[in-house]
Each structure stands twice: as C-alpha cells, then as structure tokens.
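Incident log, support desk, overnight shift.

02:14 A customer reports that sequence design results differ from what the structure should imply. Their input is reproduced verbatim below. On-call engineer (initials T.W.) acknowledged and began investigating.
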C-alpha cells in the first residue's frame, strides 16, 4: 500500500509560554501594543472542524480522513472561554466574534453565547457579539442563537450559482440551504446581516454582479474579500487575487457606488454605498464592503486578538505561534495573573504581516510555517 505523504505543515507549532509579570498593574482598558494599537476586538475560534472543504481554506487533500483534529479535552470549555473573554473585556475589548472551523458544529453554542452576552464591556455595555458561519446549519440554529443574545451574523457565501458553490465548498453542499439559513436569520430578527464573498479570480469572480444584485436593497451587506495567503496549504497565488479596486470598478459599470466613511477605527472593510438617481448614496439600496487584506494593508490600526479553541492567543492572522493561556487557566492562575499575562503579551505585539508581505524574504513570507484560517478563524 502506498504510504501517505504527510505535508510538512503543522499549524499547531509549539505554543509560546505565557508568563505572569511581577508587579502587574490592574487593567485600565488603555492597553496598547508596541505600535500604539489598542485591544478592542477578540475573535474566538471554537472548533477546528468544518463540514465544508473550501479549497482556499481546508483543501481536501490536506484535511482528509487522516487529519488529526483536536480531541475534545483539548478544547477550552465554555466556562474557560467566558472567563478569558471577561478578562479581555476588562482590557478594553468591545467586540467578540465567534468563528472556527465552523462554529455551529460546536455543540450547544447558544449556551456559550448566553454566557458571553451576560458579560459587560468596561463602559458597562453588552459586548458586540457576532458570529461568522458558512450558513449550513443556520436555518436550524438561528432562533436559539438570537434568543441567547447573539447580536449579529456574518454568513460566508462565494457564489449563487449552485454548481460553482458546490465546487467551492467541495462537499457538494447546495447553495439553497445557505440562502435558507440567511432567511432564517432574518426571520429570527437579526438585523445588519453580512455576507462575505471570498473572490478568487477565475473561480467565482464572474459571480460578483449576481451577488451584488441579489442583496442590493435587502438590508444585507455584501462584502468582497480578497483571497488571502493565510496558512500554508491553499496553494495561494497572487494572480488568483482580484484586487478590491477591480471589484468596485466592475460593479460601477452597472450599479453606481459612492465611497462611505468608516464607522469605527480599526474597521477592516471599506464601505461603498449604492447611489440613487441623484448620484448620492441611497440608504434604501444599502451598501457593499471591500476587505483588501492583500492590496491595501490595514495593520496600522489592527486591534484584533485571536483566541484558538485550545486557548492559544494569536496576535496576527499570519502568526506562526500563539501564547498558551490554557496552561494558566488549568494551572490554577488567578484572574489577576491571567489578566497581567495578557497585558504583557499585547504590550509586546509588533505584528504587521500584510504591510510587510511584499518585502519579506521567502522563508518569512509565503512558504513560512503558520497557522491555518480554519484553526484561527477570519
Ligand atoms: N466556517 C466559517 C465560515 O466560513 O464563515 C467561519 C470560519 S472561516 C475560516 C472565516 C472566514 O474566512 C470566511 O468568511 C472565509 O470565507 C474566510 N476565508 C477562509 N480562507 C480564506 C482565504 N484564504 N482568503 C480570504 N478569506 C478566507
Ligand atoms: Fe470551513 Fe469556513 Fe474554512 Fe470554508 S472557510 S472550509 S466553511 S472554515
Ligand atoms: Fe492585523 Fe496581522 Fe492582518 Fe495586519 S496582517 S491587519 S496585523 S491580522
């Protein structure tokens, strides 16, 4: 029998030990990293598993039946996640996004949502609690998630053409079920739903106008995401990236757009409003967003921390290693100690991969070992 070739990739490189500094001060919410960036956004990946095999994220050849996912005992419990989230909120986090893998595969996710929505930001507000999902299980789960306190959802959808969609998810999943999931989310009362389309030149870029027309005027915001060189398994090539500027140029021909101002600092998407007959933004038609991680780096105000399902803290989507918070959690550290360790890690942060991408030598840029998108989420 032919031996299976194991790719020279292990996204779970040994973690970095999180140390508790002596003389730690209590959190003030004013924490900044070495580039003056505050900590405002926490993305929590709740599972490394997914029922899709999008080739840009979990290519089948790598994520096959031999792939070793984490055992359940390695995953943070909901209580552990909630404890960490509470400590991050005290450091100034205002927004929490649940992601994965496919987060809706994690059993009883609504219970985690309920625990997180009981937390408060430093300002005493309910944190902005949101979820990114492939939508496959949304029809079944939207109501329970809404009832548990989830505020917003983002659904990934790369094509409306069933054949293209089935090919891109690579598990033959029908697009109609994702559309039903979006409808269920609307019916459950979610407002401001977002739809993320990863645009791959030559694969689904011809679908851009169809998606735009489908969601224009529905209150759902479509966002075009540049295909990124995350992880080390998707065989990324620059010539498959369709720059956001080109996406907008293609749309302008038929559906005039005007640039809109950012709503908050650190916002990843550039906003474009559909113009009415007078050439100005018509709010009834809504807006689209472009996320240009490749052609227009936004590291300068990146305020996002990422927590993996096994409790590692990553400071950048393109990081190779994360900081092991689970050892602190399970080793009996106090809230004060964990909080001080988090502060220490953030204060040492200097990551800005997208800004450096083009100038990095090959062993630091493409080809460098780093975590997968399916491990750390978007
Ligand atoms: N499974 C969920 C989903 O697909 O929405 C959540 C996790 S997924 C990793 C989060 C987001 O990352 C999705 O919107 C997905 O399209 C995006 N993504 C994954 N790989 C990507 C890549 N190589 N470039 C750009 N976006 C990517
Ligand atoms: Fe799964 Fe989301 Fe990755 Fe697609 S993008 S393989 S749905 S985790
Ligand atoms: Fe933030 Fe890293 Fe992305 Fe730059 S490359 S925007 S630092 S996650």
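02:41 Re-run completed on a clean worker. Output:
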């Amino acid at each position: 029998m032919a031996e299976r070739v194991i790719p020279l990739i292990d996204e779970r490189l040994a973690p970095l030990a999180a140390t508790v500094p002596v003389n730690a001060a209590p959190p003030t919410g004013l924490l900044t990293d070495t580039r003056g960036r505050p900590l405002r956004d926490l993305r929590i990946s709740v599972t490394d598993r997914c029922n899709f095999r999008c080739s840009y994220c979990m290519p089948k050849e790598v994520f096959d039946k031999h792939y070793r996912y984490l055992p359940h005992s390695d995953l943070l419990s909901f209580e552990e996640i909630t404890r960490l989230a509470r400590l991050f909120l005290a450091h100034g986090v205002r927004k929490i996004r649940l992601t994965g893998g496919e987060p809706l595969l994690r059993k009883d996710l609504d219970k985690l949502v309920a625990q997180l929505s009981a937390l408060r930001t430093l300002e005493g507000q309910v944190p902005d609690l949101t979820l990114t999902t492939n939508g496959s299980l949304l029809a079944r789960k939207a109501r329970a998630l809404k009832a548990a306190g989830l505020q917003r959802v983002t659904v990934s959808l790369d094509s409306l053409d069933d054949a293209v969609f089935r090919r891109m998810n690579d598990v033959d999943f029908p697009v109609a079920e994702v559309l039903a999931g979006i409808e269920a989310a609307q019916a459950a009362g979610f407002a401001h739903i977002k739809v993320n389309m990863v645009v791959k030149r030559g694969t689904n870029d011809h679908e851009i106008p169809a998606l735009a027309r489908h969601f224009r005027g529905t209150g759902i915001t479509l966002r075009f995401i540049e295909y990124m060189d995350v992880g080390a398994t998707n065989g990324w090539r620059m010539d498959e990236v369709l720059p956001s500027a080109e996406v907008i140029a293609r749309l302008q021909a038929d559906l005039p757009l005007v640039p809109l101002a950012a709503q908050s600092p650190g916002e990843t998407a550039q906003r474009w409003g559909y113009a009415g007959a007078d050439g100005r933004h018509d709010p009834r038609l809504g807006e689209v967003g472009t996320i240009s991680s490749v052609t227009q780096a936004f590291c300068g105000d990146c305020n996002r921390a990422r927590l993996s399902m096994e409790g590692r803290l990553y400071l950048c989507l393109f990081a190779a290693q994360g900081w092991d918070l689970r050892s602190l959690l399970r080793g009996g550290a106090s809230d004060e100690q964990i909080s001080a360790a988090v502060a220490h890690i953030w204060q040492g942060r200097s990551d800005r991969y997208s800004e450096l991408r083009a100038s990095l030598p090959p062993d630091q840029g493409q080809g460098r070992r780093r975590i997968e998108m399916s491990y750390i989420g978007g």
